């Protein structure tokens, strides 16, 4: 028996095949799309809430300011563009402000809820790792909610190791939450001193 044909799904699949998803630097004009992706996920509670001073949800101006400030520091802020639609974004920020930590970044990655499990996370993670390594960073750190299996699996696939378990550090949706800290090295890692 023939499988049922869904013309709308078929047309969508054809459109997807017509162009490849590209990864590019984000621009100011992308902020509303990135914000929509972010707000969707934090409302569902997947983010461990690592951003300092973020007791209120950010607005477009906050995101624009942060993007500009990271751009000035030459930190990657990238997105996945599927034929003009922002389907995900990722960025790195300094791990800590003190100069001793200048070769270490912490990162975030978010994929549009309608585009999960299409390889966008992999695409972004790979590009983010390459950009951070090319910029001379040596260690990359992520904080992941312990219940976030998708993110834990994605990080594991890219060689991140679990280096810390922070029990009950979050409180959301009426219960305490644990955070897992993951880390991987970049480029030569700690096998040689930094170039500058
Ligand atoms: C985590 C996230 C970025 C993954 O993005 P994605 O585009 O769906 O991931 P991909 O399709 O590239 O999948 C890559 C790998 O991640 C893992 N993965 C992704 N989603 C998964 C899920 N729901 N359950 C288990 N593993 C999953 C798998 O190992 C997968 O490889 P496979 O498809 O070969 O099995 C996405 O789920 C997301 O944006 N989640 C909400 C925001 C978030 O949690 N960000 C991280 C904060 S630390």
Q: In words, what does this structure look like?
A:
The structure is a single chain. The protein is built from 5 helices and 7 strands. It is α+β, with helices and mostly antiparallel strands. About 5% of the residues have low confidence. Helix 4 links the parallel strand 4 and strand 5. Strands 1-2-3-4-5-7-6 form a 7-stranded mixed β-sheet, sandwiched between helices.
What key attributes describe this structure?
Aminopeptidase; 196 residues; alpha+beta; seven-stranded mixed sheet; binds coenzyme A
Brief digest:
By secondary structure, the chain is of the alpha+beta class. It has helices spanning 7-18, 31-44, 60-72, 120-134, 149-157, and strands spanning 22-25, 77-82, 85-94, 104-111, 139-145, 161-172, 175-185. Helix 4 links the parallel strand 4 and strand 5 (139-145).
């Amino acid at each position: 028996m023939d499988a049922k044909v869904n013309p709308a799904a078929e047309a969508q699949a054809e459109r997807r095949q017509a162009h490849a998803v590209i990864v590019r630097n984000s621009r100011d004009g992308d902020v509303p799309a990135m914000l929509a992706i972010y707000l969707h996920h934090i409302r569902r509670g997947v983010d461990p809430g690592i951003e300092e001073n973020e007791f209120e949800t950010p607005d477009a101006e906050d995101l624009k300011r942060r993007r500009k400030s990271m751009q000035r520091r030459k930190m990657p802020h990238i997105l996945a563009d599927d034929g003009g639609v922002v389907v995900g974004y990722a960025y790195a920020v300094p791990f800590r402000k003190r100069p001793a930590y200048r070769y270490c970044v912490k990162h975030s990655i978010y994929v549009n809820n309608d585009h999960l499990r299409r390889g966008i996370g992999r695409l972004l993670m790979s590009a983010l790792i390459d950009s951070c390594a090319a910029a001379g960073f040596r260690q990359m750190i992520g904080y992941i909610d312990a219940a976030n299996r998708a993110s834990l699996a994605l990080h594991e696939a890219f060689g991140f190791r679990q280096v810390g378990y922070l029990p009950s550090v979050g409180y959301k949706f009426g219960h305490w939450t644990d955070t897992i800290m993951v880390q991987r090295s970049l480029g030569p890692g700690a096998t040689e001193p930094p170039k500058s």
